[in-house]
Design goal:
The protein is of the alpha+beta class and 111 residues long. The chain has one domain. 25% of the residues lie in helices and 32% in strands. It has 2 helices and 5 strands; from the N terminus they run ααβββββ. Strand 4 and strand 5 (102-110) form a beta hairpin. The longest helix has 14 residues, at 3-16. It is elongated, with a radius of gyration of 20 Å.
Length: 111
């Protein structure tokens, strides 16, 4: 595993995915390029053992999963999830503040 390559790929992803919509779009491109198949919520699912699938129900939602090669219909699932929120700090107008010997930037939380 080349950690330098992984770090470069992560930085490229971060640069191109600066909003929840772009995170989903970049994720979608990565999944599609890795052989995942899109399925729709409204359509019947024809899942197969060893399959890799994704669902993109909204502009800011993306669900992906794989199915083990030994899976049989009716068996249990295990799901892991994450979200694409972009909470962060925004600088307030006239943000510069001094406190003793320190210069600080006044921020507000953006959620």
């Amino acid at each position: 595993m080349n950690y330098n390559t992984i770090a470069v790929e992560l930085l490229e992803f971060i640069k191109s995915a600066t909003s929840p919509y772009q995170v989903v779009e970049e994720g979608y491109k990565n999944l599609k390029g890795s052989g995942f198949q899109e399925i729709k919520l409204k359509d019947p699912w024809k899942l197969k053992a060893g399959g890799a699938y994704y669902i993109k129900p909204y502009g800011t939602s993306l669900f992906a999963f794989t199915i083990g090669t030994d899976w049989r219909e009716g068996q249990n699932l295990r799901i892991a999830a994450a979200h694409t929120d972009h909470p962060g700090f925004r600088l307030k107008p006239n943000a510069e503040m001094t406190s003793g010997e320190y210069c600080k930037l006044n921020t507000e939380v953006y959620i």
